[in-house]
Amino acid sequence: MNEVLLRSLTPSVLGILVRRGADFAAAEDAVQDALVEAVRVWPADPPRDPKGWLVTVAWRRFLDATRADAARRRREDLVDEEPAPGPAAAVDDTLQLYFLCAHPSLTPSSAVALTLRAVGGLTTRQIAQAYLVPEATMAQRISRAKRTVSGNGVSPARAKPRARGRFDQPGNVATVLRVLYLVFNEGYSGDVDLAAEAIRLTRQLAAAIDHPEVAGLLALMLLHHARRAARTAPDGSLVPLAEQDRGRWDTESIAEGVGILQAALARDRLGEFQAQAAIAALHADAPTAEETDWVQIVEWYDELARLTDSPVVRLNRAVAVGEADGPRAGLAELAALDDSLPRHAAVAAYLHERDGDLATAARLYAEAAHKAPDLAERDHLTRQAARLNARRCR
Amino acid sequence: MAKYLLLKHYRGAPASVNDVPMDQWTPEEISAHMQYMNDFAARLEKTGEFVDGQALAPEGTFVRYDGEGRPPVTDGPFAETKDLIAGWMVIDVDSYERAIELAGDLSAAPGAGGKPIHEWLEVRPFLACPPTITE
Hints:
heterodimer, A: mainly alpha, Serine Threonine Protein Phosphatase 5, Tetratricopeptide repeat, 68% helix, B: alpha+beta, Alpha-Beta Plaits, four-stranded antiparallel sheet
């Protein structure tokens, strides 16, 4: 049995339960139980209709749990209710679920965890392992998040029938995309490949909603994911873009990303993810690092700066200018930026090295290593400093 | 079994024997050092003695409560702080002697010239729960 296939049914099954009147938190628990049951039972006894099976089992679990709770919570009226399945609005349900899990009142880490569980169908243990926190901590984070979005303790049976099963105050597309972007950027650390999971969830979202920025984010992820194998050396150290073995890039993933991006750009509603994907596509398009179209990349950074006004974008733009117009031009751009920006020293080091000032470059690489946000980057920058120091001494 | 914290210092420990900063090593020497550290942790995972290990950024901030309704006061980072933790490893071993042996192995990680750094590591026992049987 394919676990990813099973998990892809999660959001629509959950959506059906909620539409039938289950409150979100209870429905989500019931769906998790059904998934666990499916993993146990399906290998020996595969159902003809997997989704129908999951809905039936999850609904039964929900009723059992509600019955157990009934005396205290007075939900008997809901227990006896067996609503007609109604028209299948699976796509709409899925979309609503994404919005709910990116609810504006959730913190980013809660939204990420809830999305992975309720939309992605991952278990709490898998999510905990992926984020390197104890399972009990992740369980608390998820249950608090569910309570936050479940609507402030109002029992669904007491709510008006029309209002029941509807998600209140969902987030918007932009917040959903931010959550998926965060998941993708986490890469993979435990037994779950978060980058692949983020791509799967974004693909599912792109199928549910026609939105150029959703397409842009999907293209961006595919283009970055395509370079993954080439990004680390066998000893685990980082390999910068210019030194990567481009033969190891995944051309299929690149072709798909470029196709999705072109269709999105043709709609003429540019957004930051499309612009970032365009930059990634230009890198992917160059047969060698020397053949990179830096002039066009600078133009895309101009678009990106216009869209986001982010100093990080202007820092990256300085690198591109350094490649397009020479390191002195890049350093001039850099001079206009606050040197407390993350990676400012690393960019300065790189541009000084290209300009031939190895002593300054080595000093700045060491300074950048001192400020590096993660181990891989720190090691990489320390190696750069060491490389230049070794060259200068000989 | 008893847990011990192995502490590595940026500053505050006595100077190591092979005391050359890492950015003065060759890239190959850095790789060899990383490999040694990874192998060490992997070996302890295999023997069932590894609990946790983390590296810390060199710069931190001091924070203290500043009274009802006021935001906390922050200070630092202090360039002159005497003691600065670089990272830690938590091990769960059968004896104090084993903890010392492992810390010694870790301190032998290669540095400049491929020679052991002989870095001073601090070994701190965890304060454990009281044993069930006390007499």
